[in-house]
């Protein structure tokens, strides 16, 4: 499937398309983790990533068997494409809105981006409205370059893809949320561009957080932000780290753990509109991320220039260019 462009609006036609797929408090998104129709992908998409969403969708359809893609964005986004459902981010889960998160952050003196937390809560909240056994959350700033299996067909285990990151404040928050019963389980990070979620496990995780009466708040996101308030470090919660370590604590046989083959710092190096370039990079990585915080420095400019010459692409891989420029 080739997507020419995505038109974003809040017109009544888009609302009609949206309602034709489901209605809230009784949403029907399918019945299995994966079947002959493929997976359900869930992509929370803030305003800053709307310019990339058409490329992300194109590459998902190109590389995966898709049952449907649910894009959760401001005002529903108005994406009118086959197998793509656009959902108003403020209507996914009762009480969870961007303004609500902004208000809680203001009250708790959390100065960092409320939208960053909001995106994480949307990924978790989807478990409440999904009737599939599993769903795959995909970051809107990450471009899939080739197919990756999220389930082992022989063992039926789901797959975690890990990286080498380690940020202590995430685990301080996890410790508070689960009263010391969940901690860092492996010497790797669960933070990646995508994760397959077992719906029942996510719902149990949310329930355990909400049942922790030592933390202020009622909804899981209120309790999480209450824990963040007690931290002095910026960005003190990760949905990926929380879910991954929760699973390995209570359901260690449900998943197998593998290394992720992705490049996170592609901003300023890769032209995501050049499909030939993306195919060349796919020889080195399964996915790349274009993150706004990632500053474009001198070494990146060298890598950018080198990667644009076709004769260099013919003789060198993208990984070799990055190694040469030490990016």
- Which consecutive residue ranges, at least 5 long each, have pLDDT under 50? 1-31
Supply Rg.
20 Å
What value does the average pLDDT take?
Answer: 86
Number of domains: 3
- The largest sheet has its strands arranged as 3-2-1-4-7
Instruction: Give the CA-based shape.
Output: globular
**Helix-and-strand structural type:** alpha/beta
The major beta sheet can be summarized as: 5 strands, mixed
N-to-C CA distance = 33 Å
SSE order, as H and E? HEHEEHHEEEHEHHHEEHEHHH
Task: Please name the defining characteristics of this protein.
327 residues; 10 strands; disordered N terminus
Word description of this protein:
The protein has 327 residues and is an alpha/beta fold. The chain has three domains: 1-92 and 129-145, no CATH class; 148-260, no CATH class; 263-325, no CATH class. 36% of the residues lie in helices and 14% in strands. The chain is built from twelve helices and ten strands. Strands 3-2-1-4-7 form a five-stranded mixed sheet. Strands 5-10-9 form a three-stranded mixed sheet. The longest helix is centred in the middle third of the chain and has 12 residues, at 114-125. The radius of gyration is 20 Å and the shape is globular. The two termini are 33 Å apart. Mean pLDDT is 86; it is low at 1-31.
């Amino acid at each position: 499937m080739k997507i020419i462009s995505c038109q974003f609006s809040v017109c009544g036609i888009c609302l009609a398309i949206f309602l034709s797929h489901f209605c809230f408090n009784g949403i029907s998104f399918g019945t299995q983790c994966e079947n002959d129709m493929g997976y359900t992908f869930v992509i929370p998409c803030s305003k800053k990533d709307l310019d990339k969403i058409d490329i992300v969708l194109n590459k998902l359809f190109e590389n995966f068997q898709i049952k449907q893609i649910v894009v959760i964005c401001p005002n529903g986004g108005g994406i009118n494409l086959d197998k793509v459902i656009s959902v108003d981010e403020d209507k996914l889960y009762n009480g969870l809105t961007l303004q609500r998160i902004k208000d809680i952050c203001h009250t708790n003196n959390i100065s960092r981006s409320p939208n960053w937390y909001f995106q994480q809560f949307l990924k978790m909240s989807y478990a409440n409205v999904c009737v599939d056994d599993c769903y795959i959350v995909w970051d809107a700033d990450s471009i899939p370059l080739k197919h990756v299996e999220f389930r082992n067909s022989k063992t039926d285990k789901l797959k975690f893809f890990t990286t080498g990151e380690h940020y202590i404040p995430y685990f301080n928050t996890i410790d508070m949320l689960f009263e010391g019963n969940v901690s860092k389980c492996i010497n790797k990070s669960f933070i990646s561009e995508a994760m397959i979620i077992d719906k029942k496990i996510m719902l149990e995780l949310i329930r355990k957080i909400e049942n922790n009466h030592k933390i202020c708040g009622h909804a899981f996101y209120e309790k999480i932000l209450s824990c963040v308030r007690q931290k002095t470090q910026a960005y003190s919660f990760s949905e990926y780290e929380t879910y991954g370590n929760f699973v390995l604590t209570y359901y260690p046989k449900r998943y197998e753990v593998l290394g992720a083959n992705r490049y996170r710092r592609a901003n300023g190096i890769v032209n995501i509109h050049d499909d030939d370039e993306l195919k060349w990079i796919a020889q080195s990585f399964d996915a790349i991320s274009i993150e706004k915080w990632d500053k474009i420095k001198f070494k990146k400019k060298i890598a950018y220039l080198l990667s644009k010459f076709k004769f260099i692409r013919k003789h060198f891989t993208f990984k070799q260019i990055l190694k040469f420029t030490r990016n």
